[in-house]
Design goal:
heterodimer; A: alpha/beta; Urease, subunit C, domain 1; TIM Barrel; 9-stranded mixed β-sheet; 24 strands; globular; B: Rossmann fold; 5-stranded parallel β-sheet; 13 helices; 22 strands; 21% strand
Chain lengths: 565, 431
């Protein structure tokens, strides 16, 4: 069967196409070259004047796993409140949110797995990556992602605070041993990338350390965050994993943390490194309130260091919940929780987590400045291939507010109008209105499609070239970019029409993307001994088989070739 | 043992008999069933499981019938129900996924057999949050373990064997000091370490625990208590307990919601959580709530990711609703117009109700009053594979099929009932 998407305006940065009118042919879920004249086109969509992009890819969104489910469980009142609110809104009885979500937004910061899949596809997103899978909890993360319909999934496994890795490092084991372990973890957890959260800090918190700087040692292992970063970024590089090491820096959310962030950039010694939710790591200490924007310094460093990529983690105003692996910093920040409650966990000599509800308010000095800092970063980082559009869902805001965020980036007047409503002291501390830049559709397509696909190493997603999976989103060009991106006309998943006019017309189940570099299986000998002596589960049960993901007939594991092959 | 493969090779198993979910268990079936790394609870579970009939037949009003007829009858009952109650819910992850799907279709109310206890923990977490830990952290870090209102091992038998008396630990810590607050004196001998060291018992009645824990909170907050004893416990004993918790490198406080059979158990748990929170201002301590069993962690996790809520919930025309008070089984039994009782790990009988009753569960389930439909299904981790959450929720482990039987799995049965309901709706024959 051949489907023709006729005469759309194509934004496909991977092939340099910036709004050119062209036809796209789809066969068997893939984009194909124009078929021979005698071949029958079964279906034609006339897309004249419509904006056509690849399906969007969210490269950092907490969609599944222990802490997300804790966030859901601990905030029943939030879901109830929003259901009432939704009902009221339908009757036109109440003011809309400070951040206006898509028309189908569940208004819930941590939607159920079903809602997650639906809300994503309704916005034209066809893949999302869970950035913080603790290896011991990977089975749960995959179970939840397996119950997430419509989109492709994948995840980054967290290392660097697990006692096995820190022992290797403290014992000065060679890089090969580290590499084998990292590769083994990718296989065992069915992940596509490696993440480190507050390098060494989560582990240090278990030894009662309350902060850890880049060059400070974990008290027990006597290794520094810098050494952890170096070792892991080297391993990711040596193994040829496409996705650079995903780094959540030390000192999350702390005033003055921009210095740590700048130092972290240098810690990879020139190897690729991705700094995540960098907005939360771009804070200075200037001004009366000792909290200021260091977006300019961070952006300058990003512009200079071509081996570094970053996603923003924009905050938007309203109620949300922060769910992080960073138990150390979340415990420290628990006093700011709103409503005032927090779940903090030490997890299995492997990881930690901290979940706190948060309400970002535009009249709060710090929150208002956080909002401005995120936008300053977006507008000051020059290369859209190296900066990615995220809210660190749900930590900065629910992913359903992406259309609003896109409008803030594309529409200066809209942005400045929003800025003028902020806390006045915060306004005085931000240069946002002096930034003239407005993102183009092409740049948005880079940030949310081509760049994200390339960063993660999804060779056949994020672009519209011949052979690509036919994940395609079609929008009506509107000056109101929020309305435009909230409600695509069509979304195709693997060539099938799944969304029409912003509503799901067919339920499908995406695949799970993984990377499985080769390694020396001999690593299991030491690991087996470690599990038998210190862990509370068998090594074999730690590993997740392909069958576990695919046996229900819906899921499928796709393994991507790494760089070196 | 009936109708099953007698396997001469020892089988590796994950034991679902308690929340520790031990996966280091090896079963031998010949010459008779024996367990390596087993415990009393585990042996009991596997013995019962392997003694169940592997070819039990479904019953329709007490008369033997085939599976299809029983599934049709169950679907009929649910099709005309307006307020079905799905209770018991003794199952693992895959079973619960199917139950959720059926509940969405029927607007049924969901409640787990142990919710009465679980809800006290969940509501504490929802009201104030908490700081908790997991089993491997206890094994490698804990130097003081305080158990409140429980000796732990009567419900989680291998707890100390695996997590306190381990000779290997990552940080060369000493064997943890065990303190039982409000456990029976007899538990002292029963929980003696291999080297003979017995736990310290601080006797208190369960009903007195709120008073004792509040006193501990006061002491930790630097307040003086001007009485000699609190609930019969010398104040000095409490002072030295606080001292131990404060100076521990990693204190673990364990409680069992199911043991706290007192009014306002939730407030008592909240008080324990406060104690832990305060300790963490200066030193490290963490809580560890014991679960109650029958897949409670699995059921509540699955329910939460599929609907946003743990159990004591329902779908109302697709919209999930949560009510820990009104959706209790005991309350719903009076008003439901159909009861679907599910208990696959244990042969627990369905509670009494006037409404039509469907039981899907353990083949050995005995009935006081014969249900309208009984469908015996396989036991997870014995008759079929599955996945189960451990008590600490962070770990999910595979359950393995250990024998061949003719028994269908719960997922299969629920899936078929749902398919029947869908067909009825398509046919336009639904009520």
């Amino acid at each position: 069967m051949i489907t023709l998407l006729k005469n759309g305006r194509i934004y496909d940065p991977a092939h340099g196409k910036d709004g050119v009118n062209a036809d796209i042919y789809i066969r068997d879920g893939r984009i194909v070259a124009k078929p021979a004249d005698h071949e029958k086109v079964d279906q034609t969509y006339d897309l004249s004047g419509k904006v056509v992009m690849a399906g969007a890819i969210d490269m950092h969104s907490h969609i599944g796993g222990g802490k997300v489910n804790i966030a859901r469980m601990m905030l029943p009142e939030y879901q109830e409140k929003h259901q009432q609110k939704q009902a009221q809104e339908l009757k036109g009885l109440s003011e809309p949110e400070a951040h206006i979500c898509s028309p189908h937004c569940s208004h819930h910061a941590t939607p159920s797995t079903t809602d997650t899949g639906f809300r994503y596809i309704e916005m034209g997103y066809t893949a999302a990556f869970e950035p913080a899978i603790s290896p011991v909890n990977a089975r749960q993360a995959h179970l939840e992602m397996g119950d997430t319909p419509m989109i492709d999934k994948g995840g980054y496994a967290m290392l660097g605070n697990d006692d096995y890795f820190l022992r290797l490092l403290a014992d000065k084991k060679d890089q090969k041993a580290i590499n084998d372990y990292v590769a083994w973890i990718l296989h065992a957890t069915q992940a596509i990338g490696i993440k480190v959260v507050n390098p060494g800090g989560i582990n240090a918190f278990k030894f009662n350390q309350r902060r850890l700087n880049l060059d400070e040692n974990n008290v027990h292992y006597q290794v520094s965050a810098r050494e952890i970063l170096q070792s892991l970024s080297r391993a990711v590089h040596d193994l040829g994993i496409a996705k650079p090491l995903h780094v959540h820096c030390n000192n999350l959310g702390a005033a003055g943390n921009f210095a740590t962030t700048l130092d972290t950039m240098s810690a990879s010694s020139g190897l690729p490194m991705h700094l995540t939710h960098i907005q939360f790591h771009s804070y200075g200490t200037e001004g009366d309130k000792k909290f200021s924007s260091a977006a300019a310094q961070i952006a300058e460093a990003l512009n200079k260091n071509k081996h570094i990529t970053a996603d923003v983690g924009q905050i938007l105003f309203g109620q949300t919940v922060t769910a992080s692996g960073d138990s150390m910093m979340q415990h420290l920040n628990a006093k700011h929780a709103n409503p005032k409650k927090s779940v903090i966990m030490d997890i299995e000599c492997d990881a930690g987590c901290g979940v706190l509800p948060f309400k970002y308010r535009d009249q709060n000095y710090v929150n208002a400045l956080q909002w401005a800092i995120g936008l300053e970063l977006f507008l000051s980082v020059e290369d859209p291939w190296r900066i990615f559009l995220t809210t660190d869902h749900p930590n900065g805001a629910p992913f359903t507010s992406y259309p609003h965020l896109i409008r803030l980036l594309m529409d200066k007047a809209f942005r400045n109008e929003a800025f003028a409503k902020l806390n006045l002291d915060a306004q005085a501390m931000s240069n946002l209105t002096s930034l003239e830049r407005e993102y183009s559709l092409y740049e948005i397509a880079i940030m949310t499609r081509a760049g994200a696909g390339k960063l993660i190493g999804l060779n056949d997603r994020g672009h519209l070239g011949i052979g690509a999976a036919a994940d395609i989103t079609v929008y009506t060009d509107q000056t109101d970019r929020e309305a435009m991106f909230a409600r695509p006309d069509y979304v195709f998943k693997n060539g099938e029409l799944v969304v029409r006019n912003g509503s799901v017309v067919k339920v499908v189940w995406g695949v799970t993307h993984t990377a499985k570099p080769a390694f020396d299986i001999g690593v299991e000998k030491d690991l087996k001994d470690y599990f038998d002596r210190y862990q509370t589960m068998q090594l074999d049960n730690f590993k997740i088989s392909n069958d576990e993901i695919s046996s229900d007939g819906r899921g499928q594991v796709v393994t991507h070739q790494n760089n070196k092959e | 043992m009936n109708n099953q493969n007698h396997n001469a090779v020892p089988l590796n198993a994950t034991c679902p008999a308690c929340g520790l979910l031990c996966d280091d268990v090896t079963l031998s079936l010949t010459p008779e069933l024996s367990l390596q790394n087993g415990c009393t609870k585990g042996i009991h579970f596997f013995e019962d499981a392997f003694n169940t009939s592997a070819s039990a037949s479904p019953l329709l009003a007490g008369k033997s019938t085939n599976l299809e007829t029983a599934i049709n009858a169950a679907a009929e009952i649910l099709a005309i129900s307006k307020q079905a109650l799905f209770a018991g819910l003794g199952t693992e992850v895959q079973g619960m996924r199917n139950i959720m799907s059926l509940a969405k279709k029927t607007n049924a109310t969901l409640d787990h057999i142990h919710s009465e206890s679980t809800v006290s923990n969940t509501r504490t977490m929802q009201n104030s949050g908490w700081l908790t830990t997991t089993l491997a952290e206890v094994k490698n870090r804990a130097d003081v373990i305080l158990a409140i209102g429980t000796d732990i091992t009567s419900t989680h038998p291998r707890f100390f064997e695996k997590l306190a008396w381990n000779t290997d630990s990552l940080f060369d810590k000493p064997t943890p000091e065990l303190i039982f607050l409000g456990a029976p004196e007899a538990s002292k001998k029963e929980n003696a370490a291999p080297d003979g060291k017995e736990p310290t018992i601080i006797p208190a009645k369960i009903t007195q625990l709120p008073e004792v824990i509040n006193a501990l909170n006061s002491l930790l907050n630097g307040k003086k208590i001007n009485v000699e004893t609190v609930a019969g416990i010398p104040t000095n004993t409490l002072i030295s307990l606080i001292e131990k918790l404060r100076t521990a490198k990693y204190a673990v406080i364990v409680w069992s919601a199911s043991a706290l059979k007192i009014p306002h158990a939730e407030l008592t748990i909240q008080s324990i959580v406060q104690l832990i929170s305060k300790l963490n201002e200066n030193s490290r301590a963490a809580g560890l709530p014991l679960n109650s069993g029958d897949g409670d962690s699995s059921v509540n996790n699955v329910s939460t990711w599929l609907s946003g809520y743990p159990t004591r919930s329902r779908f109302n025309n697709g919209i999930p609703v949560y009510d820990t008070y009104h959706f209790a089984t005991a309350k719903q039994l009076a008003s439901c117009d159909a009861l679907l009782w599910i208990s696959t790990f244990n042969p627990y009988p369905a509670p009494n109700t006037q409404a039509p009753v469907i039981v899907i569960g353990h083949p050995d389930t005995k009935f006081e009053r014969m249900p309208d439909v009984f469908i015996p299904v396989g036991i997870p981790g014995v008759d079929h594979n599955g996945q189960m959450f451990r008590m600490d929720s962070s770990i999910t482990l595979p359950l393995k099929k250990l024998r061949d039987t003719n028994l269908p799995g719960l997922s299969e049965v629920i899936g078929k009932i749902e398919a029947k309901l869908s067909n009825r709706m398509i046919d336009g024959t639904a009520a």
